[in-house]
Amino acid sequence: MEELNTGNTAWILASAALVLLMTPALALFYGGLTRAKSVINMMMKCLVAIGIVSVVWILVGESIAVGEGTTPFFGSFTSLFGTPDAIDQVVGLNGVPSAVWTAFGMMFAIITVALIAGAVADRMKFSAWVIFATAWVVLVYCPVAYWVWNSGGWIKEWGVLDFAGGTAVHVNAGAAALGLAIVVGRRIGWKDGNFAPHNLPLVLLGAGLLWFGWFGFNAGSAFAADGFAGLAFLNTQVATAAAVLAWLLVDRIRGIKPSIIGGCSGVVAGLVAITPAAGLVSPLGAVAIGAVAGVICPFAIGLKHKLGFDDALDVVGLHMVAGYWGSISLGLFAVEEAAGVNGLFYGGDASLLGKQTAATGVVLVYSALVAFVIGLILKYTIGIRISEEEELAGIDASEHGEAGYDLPVNGNTSVDAPVAAGEPEKVSA
């Protein structure tokens, strides 16, 4: 057993808290992007993800994702029901207690599940979401985390790199969002309706808090308070900055005025893209990774209209696409001093690029298919979507009996007043 390292322990505890902050930040970001009559539902989906995943992680999730398995596909159940190592105060990797590692891993699982919610804004039953989130974290997130990060996982053994979750978190969540959105179906009036975000300051606040929390997400994944944490911190900042500038430049070229929506989307694209590479590339490589994400993601988002699926808040175009780019970018920009192998642009061969592309593709297909199947089961059992009348009136009133804003209607206020709940959606982005 290692000796307790108080510096590393303090850093991982702080990082875990920062990663937890990302889920309320996501609730603000997603909530601002929806219409006023859907903001409560979106925030509740994020909130309940914290509750569900925290309990599932202790009961079974950590065992599947982290346990020392005898197969390359999932861990053993040595830490089932209460993590005995945490109770016994066992000190593990880098002098950090097992309880701290349990908490850190839990926060990653929480944000991954919450990300999916944005794809089904306005129309998915809250009860169906609760069941979906519970099933998906057990059947998909935990096994994939084992594949990618556990020394016995088949992706890890293959030599595939994922510093902080480009494959295990973002491609995983984005692909699940795609599968679930297809089952749930398009919103009423999707192609010609007014779905403008109702609260842009809320969007900016959420994006800013996501950016802040992401330093715990990426730099914390160095697993120690050391130079790699510093490199991941620095790369996270410059990649995100480059993505914002690139996104706004692309918008300018396309004749779109600089906007909060574009800038904040660039923030998320850059954060996602650098996640798998944060501690494995140079700062110049990080700038390139972020800039490319800022260029490709606006066009990826536009594909949903051509392909006909309704990803309400662009989880696919941001998380799946930027995450995939970030993963394969390691095959180009990885540096041996940090990653143990060079990418193509630093004198390496194409083997790493091929492995990154193939393994990430497997995760994408697996997550999308399982999410699709879970969605179908829900659709034909308890039902997955609210009624047309409820959707038109607003999901907040039908599913939660609340309104995000208690606005006056003829001198009165009421959470059930559809005019009041829906009025802010007229604000143009």
Any overview of this molecule?
- The protein has a two-stranded antiparallel ribbon.
- It is 66% helix and 1% strand.
- The C terminus is likely disordered.
- The chain has a domain of 250 residues: Ammonium transporter fold.
- The protein has 17 helices and two strands.
- The chain is globular, with a radius of gyration of 21 Å.
- The protein is mainly α and 429 residues long.
Q: How far apart are the termini? A: 56 Å
Overall CATH class of the domain at 6-229 and 354-379: Mainly Alpha
User: What is the SS-derived class?
Assistant: mainly alpha
Tally of DSSP β-strands: 2
- Strand line-up across the major sheet: 1-2
Strand content: under 5%
Mean pLDDT: 92
The low-pLDDT segments are 413-429
Largest sheet: 2 strands, antiparallel
Radius of gyration using CA atoms only? 21 Å
Order of helices and strands: HHHHHHHHHHHHHHHHEEH
Keywords: Ammonia transport, Membrane, Transmembrane, Transmembrane helix, Transport
Domain Ammonium transporter AmtB-like: 10-405
InterPro entries: Ammonium/urea_transptr (IPR029020), Ammonium_transpt (IPR001905), Ammonium_transpt_CS (IPR018047), NH4_transpt_AmtB-like_dom (IPR024041)
Main location: membrane
Brief digest:
By secondary structure, the protein is mainly α. 66% of the residues lie in helices and 1% in strands. It contains 17 helices and two strands.
Features:
429 residues; globular; membrane; Ammonium transporter fold; mainly alpha; 66% helix; two-stranded antiparallel sheet
